[in-house]
Amino acid sequence: MPSPSAPDSSRRTVLATGSALSGVLLASGLTGQATAAERAEATALSADPWRTVLDDADLVWQRMPTAWYEGPFLGNGLLGSGIYAEPGAASTAVRFNVQHSEVQDHRPEFGSLFGLARLPIGHFTLEPVGAITGLDWRLSLHEAELTGTLTTERGTLALRALVHNDRSVLAVEVTASEGERGFRWVFHPADAISPRAGFKPLPDGYQGNPPAEVADHDGVAVSVQRLLAGGQHVTAWRERAGGRTRTLYVHVAHSYPQNTALDRALEAVRTAAQLPYSALAVAHRAWWHAFYRKSFLSLPDARIQRFYWIQLYKAASAARRDAPVMATSGPWLEPTPWPNTWWNLNAQLEYWLIHGSNHLELDAITRALSEFRDNLAKEVEPSYRADSLGIPRTTDPHLVNGAASALTGYGVGIPGQDPPTPEVGNLTWALHNVWLSYRHTMDESILRDVLFPLLRKAINYYLHFLEPGPDGKLHLPATFSPEYGGDSRDCNYDLMLLTWGCRTLLESAELLGIDDALAPRWREVLAKRAPYPTDANGFMIGADIPFAKSHRHYSHLLAVYPLYEVTGRTADEHALIETSLAHWVGFEGALQGYTFTGAASMSALLGKGEDALNYLGELMTRFIQPNTMYQESGPVIETPLSAAQSLHDMVCQSWGGVIRVFPALPAAWADLAVHNFRTQGAFLLSALRQGGTTRWVRLVSEAGAPCVVRHAIAGPVDVRDGQGRPLRHSDAGDGAIQVTLRKGESALITAKGDRPDLTVAPVRPNGDAPRWGLPLT
Q1: pLDDT for 296-352, tens place per residue?
Q2: DSSP string, 630-667
Q3: What is the share, in percent, of the chain residues with pLDDT greater than 90?
Q4: Cα 64 to chain center, whole Å?
Q5: Burial state string for 451-488 with b = 16 or more CB within 10 A and e = fewer than 16
Q6: Does domain 341-380+406-622 have CATH number 1.50.10.10?
């Protein structure tokens, strides 16, 4: 670490190289009584802060996991494996689930949840010779790999397992002691029927697909699942043996309507099996190492810091730009009533964390909405398809809903009519995610080619139904607010999205230089639309329905979060947010995990870090499972991922053209380090907080966008460029400054006269905390 008296040039070098992260490790649980060996290890690890925080976040198992919510999980956005004891045979077998995000049925006449549902594939069981007596496993985030030992009455099985990032192969290497050389792998094909069949009655005429056919193809075993609609999915596997070590290689392929999956699966397994496990792991690990180094965050709450890095691992295991938009359980399909993609909250929340963490390579939403836009027209009633788009509550990866209603044949309802339920705002909300991707990159192609044309048609659907009332305001007929129940005129879910959409279209048209014929109409909506319905308890569901019962969803509060249309800029608006938030979470009974992530982010908007932390604490205590997964009636992964975004909102907010550094930190987080946090305007933020004081803030501009930053440094500041020279800036009010930065330029902000050490390193934890997983203690 440079000393406090080191020359400015050495400080600038630390930042200019892009490797500002080095320094002394403050390892979790490392006390003053640590041994010399422990201190030496800590010093060595401090050379790589990512390795430090990632190793500290590893999940461990010293007790056998018995369900998906407890066990290790591996994935690459396509192939996923959850690992836990075989139900009913915990002492004799370990299950390695094999599921794939592209494997689905293709019978749209039965709808998205039966006829287009994701289909279970099957699982392998690792069956030792002797009864299982213990285990010691570790899921390494840094390597994206499970390692450890299974102990039995006959010996041990040492294993290593990964789902290869590029090859999409599950590889499991097992080294057996002498008494366990006879262990075996057994594949169990699953019934190719929608998982919803275990929760809801089957539609008339629906039947499961025929049983899979297992065969051998020149030393490669295959399970071929023929689909009634045509096409197939195929699981192929083989073992490679060497001494007491055997390695299993598994690949899944899906094809529709062709039967090409078999040849692809065979080729993938044969190619992968030519490589020993260690060689196969090289490229896999390289991808993951590069992934993590795109950003860095360390805070003094060890439990939450570990949780955060696990969510980044989880997101990259479940998402890729070219993979299907995450279904409710990601690539890990388990028994669930929700075997597809949900668009009235789940998909949006699943992807929020990619922006601040600087991982736009995971953005499947922007890609999917663009690629399958033609299907969005088919989800509105035929007479509106020429100029409107919509997305229903659920779709398959191609954004197809199927037979949403036997009466209508389209998925998005018509305002004022029911059935189907007129849940109109889902596409506009999904496009808000696309807008976030634009704002965090300033990539004009996203704005021009995806956001503007799709949002124009999504908002146009609303415009068909807006009607002037006796009060001179424009009103919406009855629509549905997820998931409250009952339709209401002037539903806040839709009014809030309509307002954001019209404002965004006008701003986008100006940026793109488009003189759009609909612009006067958008302005009229902003000027004349009905006010958001409110009463003494804050925001209502709509003009006809007060908020009067426990409700997990914040559909009636979207203008507060995530749209930031209502932000508390006046005393009355601030009071409205506080009243609405307290009333919403004040009803126990139906609250769920994402209730508390939403409440945490709304509290962060108000600058209430203690409240935000308390809400995250409620989430952790009441809902988060041992491996950080989450469940309601079935497995869903949006809530833990959205908790990472709530943490982002406490650390940095950049809505409304202002970057707010450390806007809502609790007092206990006196030290905090962040590096390459991506903000709106395409800035990369690095900052350090020590002893409750912000020491420095650095911003790198990727696009030359206007830069206004509320830096959280008390008193006068110095602002310097990348060469250490004074940089002109102006007071923007409310603790903010404005700095002109061209593309590629940077600004370093410090207290006036201060020359702090610019090293960023993991911060010291406030106390010990148990690891995630199932440790003994």
Answers
A1: 999 999 999 999 999 999 999 999 999 999 999 999 999 999 999 999 999 999 999
A2: -BSSSB--HHHHHHHHHHHHHHEE-GGG-EEES-S--T
A3: 91
A4: 27
A5: bbebbbbbbbbbbebbeeeeeeebbbbbbbbbebeebb
A6: yes
pTM tops 0.90, yes or no: yes
Contact 523, 474 (CB under 8 A): no
Give the pLDDT confidence of 401-449 residue by residue, as tens digits.
987 543 455 789 999 998 888 999 999 999 999 999 999 999 999 999 9
- Per the listing, tokens 């899979």 go with 212
Distance CA 279, CA 283 (A): 8
Task: Provide the edge-to-edge strand list for the sheet that holds 729-733.
Answer: 652-653, 659-661, 707-710, 736-739, 729-733
Instruction: Estimate to the nearest angstrom the gap between the alpha carbon of 258 and the chain centroid.
Output: 32
At 47, give phi and psi (nearest 5°). Answer: -65, -20
pLDDT digits (tens, 9 = 90+) for 526-542: 999 999 999 999 999 99
Backbone angles phi, psi at 149, to 5 degrees: -130, 140
Tens digits of per-residue pLDDT, 83-135?
999 999 999 999 999 999 999 999 999 999 999 999 999 999 999 999 999 99
Q: What is the mean pLDDT of residues 626-633?
A: 94
State whether residue 268 is helix, strand or coil: helix
User: How many C-beta neighbours within 10 Å does residue 777 have?
Assistant: 5
- What residue segments make up the domains of the chain, in order of their start? 14-28+39-57+295-318+670-770, 63-292, 341-380+406-622
DSSP 118: B
Residue 677 dihedral angles phi and psi, to the nearest 5°: -75, 125
Q: Give the closest residue to 332 by CA, choosing from 149, 113, 135, 67.
A: 67
Which SS3 state, helix, strand or coil, does residue 677 take?
A: strand
Amino acid making up residue 247 = T
Phi then psi for 502, rounded to 5 degrees? Answer: -65, -40
* Coil, strand or helix at 114: helix
> How do residues 679-690 score in pLDDT, each as one tens digit?
999 999 999 999
Tokens of 302: 């060890």
* CB contact at 8 A, 186 and 124: yes
**CA distance linking residue 579 with residue 546, whole number of Å:** 14
Contact status, residue 429 vs residue 348, Cβ threshold 8 Å:
yes
End-to-end CA distance of the chain: 35
Given the structure tokens 């360390």, which residue do they identify?
A: 298
Place of tokens 């929020």: 352
- Token output for 108: 């749209």
Q: Which CATH architecture has domain 63-292?
A: Distorted Sandwich (2.70)
DSSP string, 692-738: TEEEEEEEEESS---EEEE----S-EEEE-TTS-B--EEEEETTEEE
What length does the chain have? Answer: 777
- In DSSP notation, 500-514 reads HHHHHHHHHHHHHT-
What one-character-per-residue DSSP string does 307-358 give?
HHHHHHHHHHHH--TTSPPP-TTTT---S-S--SEETTTHHHHHHTHHHHTT
Q: Parallel, antiparallel, or unpaired for β 707-710 and 659-661? A: parallel
User: Which value, to the nearest 10 degrees, does the dihedral of the CA atoms of residues 490, 493, 494, 500 take?
Assistant: 120
- Dist. CA 700–CA 322, nearest whole Å: 28
> What does DSSP assign to residue 108?
G
CA distance 701 to 679: 10
- DSSP string spanning 362-409? G-HHHHHHHHTHHHHHTTS-GGGTTT-----SEE-TTS----S-TTTS
Q: Prior bond to 420 cis, omega within 30?
A: yes
697 in Cβ contact with 685 (< 8 Å): yes
